[in-house]
Amino acid sequence: MGLRDRIDFLCKSISAIKTAGRLVLGIDGLSRSGKTTLANQLSQTLQEQGVSVCVFHMDDHIVERAKRYHTGNEEWFEYYYLQWDVEWLTHQLFRQLKASHQLTLPFYDHEADAHSKRIVRLSGSDVILVEGVFLQRRDWKPFLDFVAYLDCPREIRFSREKDHVKQNIQKFMNRYWKAEDYYLQTEEPIKRADVVFDMS
Question: What is the second-level CATH architecture of the domain 3-198?
Answer without folding.
Answer: 3-Layer(aba) Sandwich (3.40)
